[in-house]
Design a protein that fits this description.
The chain has helices spanning about 5-20, 35-65, 70-90, 90-100, 105-140, 145-150, 150-170, 170-175, 195-200, 205-240, 245-250, 255-275, 285-310, 310-325, and strands spanning about 25, 105, 185. Strands 2-1-3 form a 3-stranded mixed β-sheet. The chain is mostly helical. It is globular, with a radius of gyration of 23 Å.
Length: about 325
């Protein structure tokens, strides 16, 4: 058993560690572009408006139209809900920074924002994997598509994706909470990005850095591998079809999903590599890319699916026509 002195020392150590946490951080926004941040906020505000409008439309259309209750559209609805939470976790605060120079954020609020951003990014990646699996089943086993991906199965997949995101990202705030922070409380970013906060610590951050790198490689590496396997199987199945028209028709159903994959992984991978290895990239370029990476996919995903999916396009058209009269 531990003696009273050991317990007292542990308590003192915890108190000293906690005392080294700042009560708040200061988010700079976009370092180097402070003089024009007020104007930069307007396109970001417009993009956020489109995110709210288009993703709400997708959710309402899928929820109210019984013909859209198939697996593909249910996964699309999950993607829209994830995009809404992801963008709302950082855009309102970012606009306050740009317009009102309100960069202060409580230490605990910073950890919460960081958790939501990274957690729902991981969940979005998982949903893209689920959508790739849906396309694989739809093309390779068209007659069993609905029987394989029942509502119960889709619910279980959604639960697995959400739990995985939470479990992988949950250690982030706890690992940050154990770090001491000395004098520097200024985050050169427009939101609480994990590595940007880690760099402010005056303690040993090797565990934080290694775990953060492992999580990114695990999520991107594992998910991209699963998506690649799905599309390899899809390609094999499509190439067996007898006519060019049949091959084109089958593969064209994957167009929207391929666009969503490119929108999510390509900018994300570039941002990740630039943040860790391309130190010659100007900081304001990196921040703009990071902001765009979190905002462009939620804005463009509904537009891509709306343009390429005939049922959604027709249903949205009817909705606006009904309200215009």
């Amino acid at each position: 058993m531990k003696s009273w002195t050991d317990c007292f020392k542990n308590t003192l150590n915890q108190m000293n560690l906690t005392s080294l946490h700042p009560s708040a951080f200061i988010l700079l926004g976009i370092p180097g572009l402070e003089s024009v941040q007020f104007w930069i906020a307007f396109p970001f505000c417009f993009m956020y408006f489109l995110v709210l409008l288009s993703n709400h439309i997708i959710i309402i259309v899928v929820k109210t139209d019984a013909s859209l209750q198939d697996p593909m559209h249910l996964f699309l609805c999950m993607l829209a809900a994830t995009d809404l939470i992801l963008s709302t976790s950082f855009v309102p605060k970012m606009l306050f920074i740009f317009w009102f120079q309100s960069g202060g954020i409580l230490f605990e609020a910073c950890l919460f924002q960081m958790f939501f951003i990274h957690c729902f990014s991981a969940i979005e990646s998982g949903i893209l994997v689920a959508m790739a699996f849906d396309r694989y089943v739809a093309i390779c086993f068209p007659l069993r598509h609905v029987s394989i991906l029942t509502h119960s199965t889709i619910g279980k997949i959604a639960l697995i994706v959400a739990v995985r995101g939470v479990l992988l990202i949950m250690p982030h705030p706890f690992l940050l909470n154990r770090l001491p922070f000395c004098e520097n409380t200024i985050i050169p970013h427009s939101y609480c990005e994990y590595m940007a906060v880690v760099k402010l610590s005056c303690g040993d951050t090797i565990i934080n850095r290694v775990y953060g790198l492992c999580v990114v490689l695990l999520i991107i590496g594992f998910d991209v591998m699963l998506i690649s396997v799905s599309y390899y199987m899809i390609l094999k199945s499509v190439l067996r079809l007898p006519t060019k028209e049949a091959r084109f028709k089958s593969f064209s159903t994957c167009g929207s999903h391929l666009c969503a994959i490119m929108l999510f992984y390509v900018p994300g991978l570039f941002t990740f590599l630039a943040h860790r290895f391309a130190h010659h990239v100007p900081l304001h370029v990196h921040i703009l890319l990071a902001n765009s990476y979190l905002l462009l996919p939620p804005m463009l995903n509904p537009l891509v699916y709306g343009v390429k999916t005939k049922q959604i396009r027709r249903r949205v058209g009817k909705m606006f026509c009904r309200h215009s009269f």
